[in-house]
Structures are given as C-alpha cells and as structure tokens.
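Q: Mind making up any chain with structure tokens?
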Amino acid sequence: MIQASGPISVATYMDLCLHDRQHGYYATRPGLGEDFITAPEISQIFGELIGLWLANEWHALGKPDAFNLVEIGPGRGTLMADAWRAAGFVPGFTQAANLHFIDPSPVLRARLADRFAGQAPIFLDQFEDIPRHTPVLLIANEWLDCLPVQQYARVGDAWHERVIGLDEAGELAFGLNAEALPPEINPDQSLDTIEIQPGLKTLADGCADLFANTPGRALLIDYGSADGTPEDTLRSYKAGKQIDPLVAPGESDLTCDVDFARLKRLCEPADLSVSGPVSQSTLLLGLGAEARLNQLAKAHPDTAQELYEGIRKLTDPAEMGERFQAICISHSGLAAPAGF
C-alpha cells in the first residue's frame, strides 16, 4: 500500500496489523499467554467478580427473563468461563442469559464455539450487530487498547499527523504529513505529541444508539488515563517483550493507552449514564476481591501464595491496580453500578 500510494496513518497501520483477515495478528496468531497476558489469565478471581457484577446488574435491570450477555474481545474465553461459573450460583441468571461474542478472529471463534458449546454462543461481527429491544449486559476487558490510534506531533505552533512510510533503505519509518488536528481537539500546548482513538467516538455513538432502545450497561476495563491526553503510547509486544512497533507488522500485538476521560466526555452529550472511570483496584476491592481471596486460600492452602500473588498484581498500585481503569456506560435512569 505504501509503495503504491504513499505513507499511511498510524491508525491505518495499526488496523491492518491487528485486524486484517488474512495477515493480521488476531486472525493468524492470537498470542494470549505468549505475547501478553490479561487479568483473567492471572487470577480466576477477576472473572468470578465480573460474573457476580453481571448478576448484580441483572437484578438492577429487574431480572428480565431473557437478556443478551455480550463480551467484546473474549480471547480464549477465560474471563467468560469464570464469570459464567460464578454467576451460575445466582438463581435464574444463566437461564436468562443469551451469550454473544464479538470477535473477528476465525481461530478464536472456533475455540470459543467449542469451549462454550453448552451455551450455544452467538457470534457477532461488530458492536452495531448487538440485538436491540432486549436488555443487554456487555463486558470488554483489554479491547479498547486495540482500537487504532491517530498520532499528532507539534512542530512549532502547528500540529501534523504522524504517518508511516519508507526510508531510503525501503524500511518502515515514521514521518509527518500536513494533516492538521481534528477541529474538536484542543490539546494542551505544553505537549509535543498526542494520540486520538477515533473508535472512542464510534463507541460512544454506538452506546447512545443501543441504549436509546435497549436497557442495559457496558463495563469496559483497560489500561489508560483517567485524566489527561495520552501522548506517544503506541507499543508492540512479541514473545513477552516490548519491541519496535514497526519491526514485526502482523506478527506482534500493537496497543496504546485509552483516554478514558475523552470517552466519558463523548458519552455525556448523549442520554447516557456514565460511572467512573475508577481504578481497577477500586473496582475489584469494591466487588469483594479480598473476601474471595481468603475463601479460596482457605479451601486451597497449597496454592494460597499463588492466589495472593495474582490478586496483588491486579490491585497493587505499583502493578495493574492503578494502571488499569474501569468505566461503565448505561442507559439513563439506573443507579450507580456495583464497584463504582
């Protein structure tokens, strides 16, 4: 593409590297546990608490006889498996839940279909495909960071979009073009670079459309900033190590920090209720992480230290506790969700 048409935006590069159906990272080599590891893989307590959160919010919706339970970016299904098991102790929840997954990867879809065969999951291509007029509870852990990011750099008093082209040796290289900042962005002039995820606006609009006709909530957890605009956070991981984002396109995970403050601002003009963002530590401890840890440690003393280390990593401010944020977007009129 670059050879034929010239430099491409960072967002286009990220989208192709991650989501191309033939050569993209998620389509060809999903590397959970290899290139990166997520909270559900670290501790079963994470998924169990999310399951109890879902059951609590189902009660808040009036315990509908049927509702759509949707997970975006489910990976290998570890989060949903733990959540489903925990929520199964709440009478009526699993019987009312219609399980949906949104994931573009054919490889992961096949694994999920096998793992959740008993729940007969329905696979959707995108957020807009979520059925309307039926109550919905949606969760997404480490999905927002995969939304392609546009980068801008300030040169003097002018902002230019960062692009990816070819250097004299024919290798991928960063450069700038004349594209200016979108008019709605008013950055702190003390910054030299900023990042914008266009997908956050799409998500906010999608939630407004969904919850205009459908009662429900969306719980989103990811790493990012609760205030302030992300600068240059584009990163790439392969085999558990951080590498140059331009070195292994399609063979490494590309990720960026999420601007939770901007997501909240984008949702506020719509008729939506937004809770948070709060830190992952605040959410998990508020949902009873310590009580569940003590319960499991007592039942399984031989693995008590491993259980403790998992929760410590998820809640310690020096680890993932403050680095990760949670936000909940709901239709208007609902009370604040559990954990917020």
User: Anything to note?
Assistant: The CA atoms of residues 160 and 180 lie 5 Å apart. The radius of gyration is 20 Å.
